[in-house]
Amino acid sequence: MKKLLIILDPAHGENTPGKRSPDGTHREYLWSRERLQQVEIMLLAMSYKVVWTNETNLEIGLTNRKEVANRYAKANPDLVPFLISLHNDAKNADGTWQNTASGTSVWTSKGRTTSDILANFFIDNISDWMPNIRKRIYDVKPGDKDFEENFTVLMGNYSAILIECMFQDNRDDVEILRDTRFQKQVEDWIVDSVEKCNQYITEKLI
User: Fold this and answer.
1) How far apart are CA 105 and CA 165, in angstroms?
2) Which of 1, 51, 144, 152 has the most CB atoms around its CB within 10 Å?
């Protein structure tokens, strides 16, 4: 039996201002939901229990997302809750194109927690599944690979990571995000990383 409860947290909503490419052809909320829907299918086939913080295309609020995740965690005391939030990054706050920032990063809340350990499985796995993608890591402190910020959805009673997959204000990154082969790589990367996390948790619980 799988030990993890997977809580999928899709990016934003169709009613969220911005959160798209400058030309409007890429929408973060939609890209995230499409990837996570495929991830859910694969994880369910592998006998994971999978739930969502938000099953609509609208933004329901960050606090609501956290509360939904907390309720799922409390309702499944026999499983280890693990929230995965999938986003696209952006550098320019004014919604214009830029060509300097690119790549994928993984974030956790501040401080050393189990989330940092699980995040490392995802980070170490990026090169295997997306070999041509820049792996953005935090290297100020030895051993710290993930970025840390107290984002609301990372602050619940569960382990959690937030993935920033490529930059939606970088033309080259947007082209990659549109590539169906890359989309499948992202989905397989998440599923394979979840399996590694589950193996780690299972060994710890023995």
Assistant:
1) 7
2) 51
Contact present, 32 and 87 (Cβ < 8 Å): yes
Q: Closest Cα partner for 190 from 41, 74, 84?
A: 84
Tokens for 9, please give them. 């947290």
Residue 159 corresponds to which tokens in the numbers above?
Answer: 């382990």
57 touches 29 (CB < 8 A): yes
Coil, helix or strand for 152? helix
Non-local CB neighbours of 92 within 8 Å, separated by 6+ positions: 98, 169
Token readout for 140 is 């100020």
Query: Which DSSP letter does residue 131 get?
Result: T
Coil, helix or strand for 105?
strand
Give the pLDDT confidence of 182-195 residue by residue, as tens digits: 999 999 999 999 99
